[in-house]
Amino acid sequence: MAEAHQAVGFRPSLTSAGGEAELSAPVLQEIYLSGLRSWKRHLSRFWNDFLTGVFPASPLSWLFLFSAIQLAWFLQLDPSLGLMEKIKELLPDWGGQHHRLRGVLAAALFASCLWGALIFTLHIALRLLLSYHGWLLEPHGAMSSPTKTWLALVRIFSGRHPMLFSYQRSLPRQPVPAVQDTVRKYLESVRPVLSDEDFDWTAGLAQEFLKLQASLLQWYLRLKSWWASNYVSDWWEEFVYLRSRNSLMVNSNYYMMDFLYVTPTPVQAARAGNAVHALLLYRHRLNRQEILPTLLMGMRPLCSAQYEKIFNTTRIPGIQKDHIRHLRDSRHVAVFHRGRFFRVGTHSQSSLLSPRALEQQFQRILDDPSPARPHEEHLAALTAAPRDMWAQVRRSLKTQAKDALEAVEGAAFFVSLDSEPAGLTREDPAASLDAYAHALLAGRGHDRWFDKSFTLIVFSNGKLGLSVEHSWADCPISGHMWEFTLATECFRLGYSADGHCKGHPDPSLPQPQRLHWDLPDKIHPSISLALRGAKTLSGNIDCHVFPFSHFGKSFIKRCHLSSDSFIQMALQLAHFRDRGQFCLTYESTMTRLFLEGRTETVRSCTREACNFVRAMEDKEKTDPQCLALFRVAVDKHQALLKAAMSGQGVDRHLFGLYIVSQFLHLQSPFLDQVHSEQWQLATSQIPVQQIHLFDVHNYPDYVSSGGGFGPADDHGYGVSYIFMGDDTITFHISSKKSSTKTDSHRLGQHIEDALLDVAALFQEGQRLKRACRGLGEEDLGHRCGSLPCHARGSRAPTTSATF
């Protein structure tokens, strides 16, 4: 989500002080180390593979094979064609009375070898099958005979009960695209936003690059793709995230929202108790691999590697480069309330604490009248400071306040019990949602520990939210966890009639442990400086959230169009109306079809999209003409999206070539030009991955309202959107208040108008637009039809409705 800002900001050839020679290691050594890290990860998963039966086989399959061999031997048949006899001859002779034991051992050894060969064959077969991407390039709703055959074979070789990491050893590696194709696609993507003179200059740089440098850089990337698990993902994590020296707040983190219209309980401690318990249930299922692997379109497994670092993970600041610290387990959470830090145990001697017991612990913190110590209240602002500054201060903290720091960094996750309410209010629905988004993205600058993999935020009125650090994984991973959390804490765990967690308190539990920070005087100025910087950054962000409820996914499907492409074309129209020009557009999509894949960029501002937008703004163009251009633009976007997902995108390949050029100290004006571009419109769709957990038809209010991120450019926008059920789309828009060119609310109005204008190209959409114009803002409390002016309180679905 927020990766566009990081992608623009990275400068691998510079140190934090601006000096040269940051990347002095020989490129071959770096490729070797990348492969070594990959193999270490493979070895660390060996035990997991053993527990899962070295998928796609199972331990029971070995027992079945051994029993079959023994039965055949009893019937005087030799399925080994004499091999078992040869194995018996190689075994030690223990005497005549052990002759039968030698036969059993020979059968076991033969069964093991045959079993291993079958497993290896199945792995290879499944990897070859998963390398086929023809199904992705077929028209929506159509399936060719080869694809039907492929799907049947995938289901046969996949087994019946795959676990979360079952497919990891069978996923193909991400391919390195042909460099000529990448450069051609790049030039095609920038043509709509460049003048003729600038485009000719860029094309000249591209031709020079292809002639002089491309083949050498490409050779190194191909070498890495053969040796390491993924040719780009580890460099993407390191250079885009871990080497970034900017503040994590706004620039890198993103947020996830609660239910929009309902709050299951107004009791803050109770909501925290159920939410923490639900998160730890998710961790338990994750550790046991009981979470089903994600299947794209219900048939193609995605890489699950990013799930490994959801919990017990902290980004540790360093000079020039951070690193990710992940613990195997943690039995406590760190809690922040009114400037004080606490350690709350999450387990008894035998099991996880009940939601009611956790509520009791959180209530004790809320009732604790002790004040914050000097400078303790603003200590967390250091995690929002530039990374080099925080790394230096942390060295002192590690010496003077080691236990407290370890309690926070070693926690399963961070919990912030806010003293203020948040969420939708009847009095001012628009402003309240904007403030809610701002509180989740930035807070007050000192009430989130931005280094933790995520911070659970619980507001005083029971509203929830997440603030997520971006380096360890991408949004679909945290989104999957968040969907499970909301569904579990609301529907499965539930609340009593008085709003408390179900069950009984446990008076025998010890009080939450207050963390004491021995803060040396020399870091006090750093805390004050970090707080001023965080407040400045927080105060400069302009957030706007609005649900668009005139139509949603169901209407777009009836138009036989891709929902994502429909929204992307509407965003192009809205942005053109807002700024009067086209700009490079960053849309994030996933590459998890491949082992350890992360994301790729879809450059949504295409020539076809620009032709459609110009037609919409041309009063002489008729609706049929505009509709024809719209369909062409949608088809082009779909082609780019599918190419990116199948490893044939532009930006990650160019990024990898750029990194190699920096290792080789090889200057490339073309690559320098590519990575100096600004993304004035960064977009992302938040997928709903577990719709079975929610009853969107009977209880449409009980669906997550998505989340958002900061803008990628000081004069640009960040836009995310989520399809809530079939008839609502929620948009999250951000920009900088310091820019005179942007206004999040203005763009929101343009997005709403653009959606209605695009829908009006279809006959059903014309009726929707007329109906919208018949409504007034006084009817809905926000823009035309986009937000009810009351927080509905429909009864929560029962357990049987969702589980």
Can you describe what's shown?
- 46% of the residues lie in helices and 11% in strands.
- It has an eight-stranded mixed β-sheet, sandwiched between helices. Strands 12-18-17-15-13-14 form a six-stranded mixed β-sheet, with helices on both faces. Strands 2-3 form a two-stranded antiparallel sheet.
- The longest helix is centred in the N-terminal third of the chain and has 32 residues.
- The chain contains 28 helices and 18 strands.
- The protein has 803 residues and is an alpha+beta fold.
- Keywords: Acyltransferase, Fatty acid metabolism, Lipid metabolism, Membrane, Transferase, Transmembrane, Transmembrane helix.
- Belongs to the carnitine/choline acetyltransferase family.
- How many beta-strand runs? 18
- CA gyration radius, whole angstroms: 28 Å
Q: Helical stretch count?
A: 28
- How far apart are the first and last residues' alpha carbons, in Å? 30 Å
Shape: globular
How much of the residues is beta strand, in percent? 5-15%
Low-confidence stretches: 13-21, 776-795, 798-803
pLDDT averaged over residues: 87
What secondary-structure arrangement, pairings included, does this model have?
Layout: H1 3-9, H2 27-44, H3 46-51, H4 59-74, H5 83-90, H6 99-130, H7 145-158, H8 179-190, H9 196-212, H10 214-227, H11 233-242, E1 254-257, H12 268-287, E2 295-296, E3 300-301, E4 313-316, E5 323-326, E6 332-337, E7 340-345, H13 355-367, H14 387-400, H15 402-409, E8 414-417, H16 429-441, E9 454-458, E10 464-468, H17 475-493, E11 513-514, H18 524-539, E12 541-548, H19 553-558, H20 563-579, E13 585-590, E14 599-603, H21 607-617, H22 623-645, H23 651-663, H24 669-674, E15 681-685, E16 707-709, E17 717-724, E18 728-736, H25 744-759, H26 763-773, H27 777-780, H28 799-802
Parallel strand pairs: 6-8, 8-9, 13-15, 15-17
Antiparallel strand pairs: 1-10, 1-16, 2-3, 4-5, 6-7, 7-11, 9-10, 12-18, 13-14, 17-18
Helix pairs in contact: 2-10, 4-6, 5-6, 6-7, 8-9, 10-23, 12-13, 12-17, 14-15, 20-21, 20-22, 20-25, 21-22, 25-26
